[in-house]
Amino acid sequence: MRRLAHLCDHLRMVHSLEPLLVRHTHRLSSPKGTAGQGAAAARQFDAALTSVGFKLSARLLERLSGLSEAAVLHTARRTLRTVGEMVGDHVQHNAYFIDFPANVPDTEEFWTRCVVKALADDSSRENVLGQLAHGVLNLLSLPTYGRYQHTYEEMLAAQDELIESAGDRVTVLHLGRDLDTELADLYLALAGSTTPLGDEHLLDLRALAERCALGPQPDAIPVRENRAVVNEARLAVGADLLLDTVTDVLRLACALSGGDVTLREPTRFRSLPRPVRRALLAGLDAVVAANPAKLADVHAHREPFKRLGERLHPHEYPRWPHAADVFAVARGEREARSFDSRVEERLDEFDVRGAVRILESAPGKLFRALDLLLRIAADQEERDAVVAAAVRIAPDVSGRVLLSVREHFHNRGRETGEPRIFINGRGRGWVAEDDRPPVPAAVRDPLIAALDAEMRGRLPAPDRLLLDPEVLDVALPLSGRARCPAERVRIRRRRRAVALLRVLEGKRAADRLRPRRAAAQRRLQHRLLAVLHVPQGRRGRALGRCHRSARGCLGVHQPGPGPGARHLHRPAGQHLRG
Known about the structure:
The longest helix has 24 residues, at 2-25. Among the domains are: 12-90 and 168-176, no CATH class; 199-330, no CATH class; 339-460, no CATH class; 488-548, no CATH class. The chain has 26 helices and five strands. It is mainly alpha-helical. The strands form two sheets. A three-stranded parallel beta sheet has the order 1-3-2. A two-stranded antiparallel ribbon has the order 4-5. Helix 13 (274-290) packs across helix 15 (321-330).
């Protein structure tokens, strides 16, 4: 009975993982079942898929045709449910405007209609007139706001043309290998992804990691959040943890406590069982014993490490002394020189070559410091050495950093003296005067050419690539995150300059800044309003609307320097020009 129950649990888990394979790879694992005459059922399955924009490949259709009708129907039921969810067929998507995106009224026209309808309605007229008598009307309280003015069926009837055009998009489902092999490959692809996964994909990785924790692992897990998910699954089955830094242990502890593994938000650590505490302390001890310099990573997250130490009780386990050193550094009882402090020491002495030698072990930091290194270099020979080091380690730098630095030096060809807008990862902005001297063309041009060559070498070579000219001036996020708070939705039917205006904090927020920054911000606001041809007398009103609107429409993530790095200059944001 126990073996039967275990087999049933295994089958349920397998069936729950099959939709992951379809969603991520558009493949069906090789269908199993008794041989038979399933051609008719397979064609019906294909026709049903076509109605939602999918189709069976020739090989998959041939494979299904050789199975019994019952086996084909069993596969069809599970697959149709999955593809239906992929296209949103499991929910009713209504639209506020029945013929959206056509005939969407302007803001003033929309609110005027809402007020007129409210005054014409006997049930709401008295409330509206009462608010108007006090000089203020809460537009959100109007009866037509936030309520559908039509049924879902009426919306479908008005969207016949759009629904028919959806049939032009067809996704082909291919024949895969056996389910175990396909799931193992999908796990390796998600765990080894070089870009962060979205929330839904992280849940998929968690489910796959629980199944594949004891199997083959990717050669590298570049994204730390993915590593935390994988380690959580490996810890549950007693497998060795995949740790590279002490921060990996901190992220794992956050995951075990249901906290934020990105470490952007504080985590309230739970009381952990003794076996889990031993595993985390053993992991910390092994990381530091292999490379004591990694104790410097503690400085970036001292407070979380302090709180974690209160839960792990390292003093109870003297056999792991290096783990205790981690929490001693967090409490300030032991010194551990950070990487940035070593670079600072060289920069304070204007030893550019020495700083470059240290930074070569951290390619991303070297690229972020290129502007500073080129500016403080004593002569052309030192500048050439900096460029040569950058070209040498460019293959080890992430694509988003290459693009950010390339854009940065593209905008450094002239001395502007104009204020610049910087947006951090949380969507908060500030304005600073750009008083840096320009980078000479003799240095800038070869560096840009080398970065372009590196990016071209990484990109595929498509036979045909179509680009809409309208998207060429849209700033793309380079944060590397699936969702970044600094990003904002680009508003339809709006000029770009209006979107740029909304990036500013607004006149009132600017007054709270230091006088120099506030003055620079106001100058830039008025410059943008002048580009929009807003009359001088109406600019105060426009600035008020800017302040009341949502903060930021267009964001450029700017990774700042590490802790204590006074000289490592962050890459400049996109230079906003009207």
